[in-house]
Amino acid sequence: QSVLTQPPSASGTPGQRVTISCSGSTSNIGSKTVNWYQHLPGAAPKLLIYSNNQRPSGVPDRFSGSKSGTSASLAISGLQSEDEADYFCATWDDSLNGLFGGGTKLTVL
Amino acid sequence: EVQLVQSGAEVKKPGESLKISCKGSGYSFTNYWIGWVRQMSGKGLEWMGIIYPGDSDTRYSPSFQGQVTISADKSISTAYLQWSSLKASDTAMYYCARLRKQWLAGVYYYYIDVWGRGTTVTVSS
Q1: What is the pLDDT of residues A70-88, one digit of tens each?
Q2: Are A5 and A89 in contact, with CB atoms under 8 Å apart?
Q3: What residues of B are in contact with residue A98 (Cβ under 8 Å)?
Q4: Which of A15, A36, A22 is nearest to A68 (CA)?
Protein backbone atom coordinates (compact mmCIF):
# COMPACT_ATOMS: atom_id res chain seq x y z
CA GLN A 1 0.00 0.00 0.00
CA SER A 2 1.46 3.33 -1.09
CA VAL A 3 2.08 6.11 1.40
CA LEU A 4 0.57 8.69 -0.93
CA THR A 5 -2.99 8.04 -2.08
CA GLN A 6 -4.11 8.48 -5.66
CA PRO A 7 -7.28 7.38 -7.41
CA PRO A 8 -6.51 4.23 -9.43
CA SER A 9 -8.12 5.60 -12.56
CA ALA A 10 -9.28 8.76 -14.28
CA SER A 11 -10.71 9.49 -17.69
CA GLY A 12 -11.69 12.29 -20.00
CA THR A 13 -12.49 13.08 -23.59
CA PRO A 14 -10.17 14.97 -25.94
CA GLY A 15 -10.08 18.66 -25.11
CA GLN A 16 -11.36 18.19 -21.57
CA ARG A 17 -9.58 19.13 -18.36
CA VAL A 18 -8.87 16.37 -15.89
CA THR A 19 -7.35 16.46 -12.45
CA ILE A 20 -5.57 13.75 -10.50
CA SER A 21 -5.26 14.01 -6.76
CA CYS A 22 -2.51 12.89 -4.39
CA SER A 23 -3.22 12.77 -0.69
CA GLY A 24 -0.71 12.42 2.10
CA SER A 25 -0.06 13.68 5.60
CA THR A 26 1.62 16.50 7.48
CA SER A 27 4.88 14.51 7.58
CA ASN A 28 5.14 14.18 3.81
CA ILE A 29 3.08 16.35 1.46
CA GLY A 30 2.28 18.76 4.25
CA SER A 31 5.94 19.62 4.74
CA LYS A 32 7.63 18.69 1.46
CA THR A 33 7.25 19.54 -2.18
CA VAL A 34 5.31 17.26 -4.53
CA ASN A 35 6.45 16.04 -7.92
CA TRP A 36 4.48 14.43 -10.73
CA TYR A 37 5.54 11.92 -13.34
CA GLN A 38 4.06 10.43 -16.50
CA HIS A 39 4.77 6.79 -17.20
CA LEU A 40 4.08 5.23 -20.55
CA PRO A 41 4.38 1.45 -20.93
CA GLY A 42 7.90 0.39 -21.78
CA ALA A 43 9.32 3.85 -21.32
CA ALA A 44 11.18 5.62 -18.57
CA PRO A 45 8.96 7.73 -16.32
CA LYS A 46 9.03 11.40 -17.27
CA LEU A 47 9.09 14.36 -14.90
CA LEU A 48 6.07 16.60 -15.49
CA ILE A 49 5.96 18.84 -12.42
CA TYR A 50 8.50 19.43 -9.67
CA SER A 51 8.34 21.47 -6.49
CA ASN A 52 4.53 21.46 -6.51
CA ASN A 53 3.99 23.57 -9.59
CA GLN A 54 7.17 23.94 -11.64
CA ARG A 55 7.32 22.60 -15.18
CA PRO A 56 10.63 21.42 -16.62
CA SER A 57 11.48 22.82 -19.99
CA GLY A 58 9.77 20.90 -22.74
CA VAL A 59 6.69 19.98 -20.73
CA PRO A 60 3.60 21.60 -22.29
CA ASP A 61 1.79 24.21 -20.21
CA ARG A 62 -1.31 22.00 -20.46
CA PHE A 63 0.16 20.28 -17.40
CA SER A 64 -0.01 22.12 -14.10
CA GLY A 65 0.40 21.23 -10.45
CA SER A 66 -0.83 22.60 -7.17
CA LYS A 67 -0.63 21.80 -3.48
CA SER A 68 -2.77 22.66 -0.52
CA GLY A 69 -2.12 21.33 2.93
CA THR A 70 -1.63 17.59 2.75
CA SER A 71 -2.96 17.16 -0.79
CA ALA A 72 -1.68 17.91 -4.25
CA SER A 73 -3.21 17.84 -7.70
CA LEU A 74 -2.09 17.45 -11.26
CA ALA A 75 -4.28 19.10 -13.87
CA ILE A 76 -4.18 18.32 -17.57
CA SER A 77 -6.07 20.69 -19.80
CA GLY A 78 -6.84 20.25 -23.48
CA LEU A 79 -6.62 16.48 -23.05
CA GLN A 80 -4.99 14.64 -25.95
CA SER A 81 -4.90 10.98 -26.86
CA GLU A 82 -1.16 10.94 -26.26
CA ASP A 83 -1.78 11.83 -22.61
CA GLU A 84 -3.11 8.33 -21.98
CA ALA A 85 -0.62 6.98 -19.46
CA ASP A 86 -0.01 6.28 -15.79
CA TYR A 87 0.60 9.31 -13.59
CA PHE A 88 2.13 9.21 -10.14
CA CYS A 89 3.07 11.68 -7.46
CA ALA A 90 6.20 11.53 -5.33
CA THR A 91 8.01 13.33 -2.55
CA TRP A 92 11.23 12.82 -0.60
CA ASP A 93 11.83 13.13 3.10
CA ASP A 94 14.89 14.53 4.86
CA SER A 95 16.54 11.10 4.84
CA LEU A 96 16.13 11.02 1.05
CA ASN A 97 13.53 8.26 1.24
CA GLY A 98 11.19 8.45 -1.71
CA LEU A 99 7.45 8.22 -1.13
CA PHE A 100 5.24 7.41 -4.09
CA GLY A 101 1.58 7.46 -4.91
CA GLY A 102 0.07 4.25 -6.21
CA GLY A 103 -0.42 5.74 -9.65
CA THR A 104 -3.45 6.79 -11.65
CA LYS A 105 -4.21 5.27 -15.03
CA LEU A 106 -5.56 8.00 -17.28
CA THR A 107 -7.79 6.91 -20.14
CA VAL A 108 -8.64 9.26 -22.99
CA LEU A 109 -12.08 8.22 -24.18
CA GLU B 1 21.70 14.93 -23.04
CA VAL B 2 21.47 13.49 -19.56
CA GLN B 3 20.86 9.75 -19.71
CA LEU B 4 20.78 6.75 -17.42
CA VAL B 5 21.26 3.53 -19.36
CA GLN B 6 20.38 0.36 -17.53
CA SER B 7 21.59 -3.15 -18.19
CA GLY B 8 19.39 -5.67 -19.96
CA ALA B 9 16.73 -8.03 -18.73
CA GLU B 10 17.78 -10.89 -16.47
CA VAL B 11 16.30 -14.32 -15.87
CA LYS B 12 17.67 -16.08 -12.80
CA LYS B 13 16.94 -19.00 -10.51
CA PRO B 14 16.18 -18.66 -6.80
CA GLY B 15 19.37 -18.55 -4.77
CA GLU B 16 21.48 -17.08 -7.56
CA SER B 17 23.26 -13.76 -7.28
CA LEU B 18 22.75 -10.80 -9.57
CA LYS B 19 24.16 -7.34 -10.15
CA ILE B 20 22.39 -4.89 -12.47
CA SER B 21 23.84 -1.61 -13.61
CA CYS B 22 22.94 1.96 -14.42
CA LYS B 23 25.38 4.08 -16.42
CA GLY B 24 25.08 7.83 -16.32
CA SER B 25 26.14 10.15 -19.12
CA GLY B 26 25.79 13.77 -20.08
CA TYR B 27 26.43 15.14 -16.60
CA SER B 28 28.86 14.99 -13.71
CA PHE B 29 28.04 11.57 -12.28
CA THR B 30 29.71 12.23 -8.94
CA ASN B 31 27.56 15.27 -8.14
CA TYR B 32 24.10 13.70 -8.05
CA TRP B 33 22.44 11.03 -5.94
CA ILE B 34 21.31 7.91 -7.83
CA GLY B 35 18.31 6.03 -6.46
CA TRP B 36 16.81 2.63 -7.17
CA VAL B 37 13.09 1.97 -7.43
CA ARG B 38 11.21 -1.32 -7.63
CA GLN B 39 7.95 -1.92 -9.43
CA MET B 40 6.38 -5.32 -9.10
CA SER B 41 3.89 -6.38 -11.72
CA GLY B 42 0.66 -4.42 -11.39
CA LYS B 43 1.91 -2.57 -8.32
CA GLY B 44 3.13 0.90 -7.46
CA LEU B 45 6.68 2.16 -7.13
CA GLU B 46 8.80 1.37 -4.09
CA TRP B 47 11.87 3.32 -3.05
CA MET B 48 14.79 0.99 -2.38
CA GLY B 49 17.71 3.23 -1.60
CA ILE B 50 20.16 5.77 -2.86
CA ILE B 51 23.88 6.38 -3.34
CA TYR B 52 25.99 9.48 -3.80
CA PRO B 53 28.74 8.38 -6.20
CA GLY B 54 31.02 11.22 -5.13
CA ASP B 55 31.68 9.66 -1.72
CA SER B 56 29.63 6.42 -1.87
CA ASP B 57 27.30 7.61 0.90
CA THR B 58 24.53 5.00 0.70
CA ARG B 59 21.12 4.94 2.35
CA TYR B 60 18.55 2.17 2.26
CA SER B 61 14.82 2.17 2.71
CA PRO B 62 14.05 0.10 5.83
CA SER B 63 12.12 -2.36 3.65
CA PHE B 64 15.20 -3.14 1.60
CA GLN B 65 17.99 -2.82 4.16
CA GLY B 66 19.90 -6.11 4.21
CA GLN B 67 18.07 -7.40 1.13
CA VAL B 68 20.10 -5.66 -1.55
CA THR B 69 23.39 -3.81 -1.93
CA ILE B 70 23.73 -0.51 -3.75
CA SER B 71 27.15 0.54 -4.98
CA ALA B 72 28.79 2.77 -7.55
CA ASP B 73 32.00 2.98 -9.56
CA LYS B 74 32.54 6.64 -10.27
CA SER B 75 35.43 5.90 -12.60
CA ILE B 76 32.95 4.50 -15.10
CA SER B 77 29.91 6.55 -14.03
CA THR B 78 27.95 3.45 -13.12
CA ALA B 79 25.72 2.56 -10.21
CA TYR B 80 24.77 -0.97 -9.25
CA LEU B 81 22.06 -2.88 -7.49
CA GLN B 82 22.88 -6.38 -6.38
CA TRP B 83 21.43 -9.42 -4.69
CA SER B 84 23.42 -12.23 -3.10
CA SER B 85 20.58 -14.74 -3.12
CA LEU B 86 17.54 -14.02 -5.24
CA LYS B 87 14.01 -15.00 -4.33
CA ALA B 88 10.99 -15.38 -6.55
CA SER B 89 9.57 -12.31 -4.84
CA ASP B 90 12.40 -10.24 -6.31
CA THR B 91 10.76 -10.57 -9.71
CA ALA B 92 10.08 -7.00 -10.76
CA MET B 93 11.12 -4.06 -12.88
CA TYR B 94 13.94 -2.03 -11.36
CA TYR B 95 14.55 1.60 -12.24
CA CYS B 96 17.51 3.79 -11.48
CA ALA B 97 16.97 7.51 -11.28
CA ARG B 98 18.89 10.73 -10.68
CA LEU B 99 17.87 12.82 -7.72
CA ARG B 100 18.09 16.58 -7.92
CA LYS B 101 17.77 19.08 -5.14
CA GLN B 102 16.25 22.51 -5.10
CA TRP B 103 16.85 25.24 -2.53
CA LEU B 104 13.58 26.84 -1.53
CA ALA B 105 13.01 29.19 1.37
CA GLY B 106 16.09 28.00 3.18
CA VAL B 107 15.42 24.27 2.75
CA TYR B 108 16.51 21.65 0.24
CA TYR B 109 13.78 19.72 -1.51
CA TYR B 110 14.39 16.75 -3.75
CA TYR B 111 12.95 15.22 -6.89
CA ILE B 112 13.90 12.74 -9.57
CA ASP B 113 14.52 14.48 -12.87
CA VAL B 114 15.86 11.61 -14.98
CA TRP B 115 14.95 7.93 -14.95
CA GLY B 116 16.46 4.90 -16.61
CA ARG B 117 14.20 2.73 -18.73
CA GLY B 118 14.27 -0.07 -16.23
CA THR B 119 15.70 -3.57 -15.95
CA THR B 120 13.34 -6.51 -15.76
CA VAL B 121 14.43 -9.18 -13.32
CA THR B 122 12.66 -12.53 -13.42
CA VAL B 123 13.42 -15.11 -10.76
CA SER B 124 11.95 -18.51 -11.43
CA SER B 125 12.92 -22.10 -10.95
Answers
A1: 999 999 999 999 999 999 9
A2: no
A3: 35, 37, 45, 47, 61, 112
A4: A22
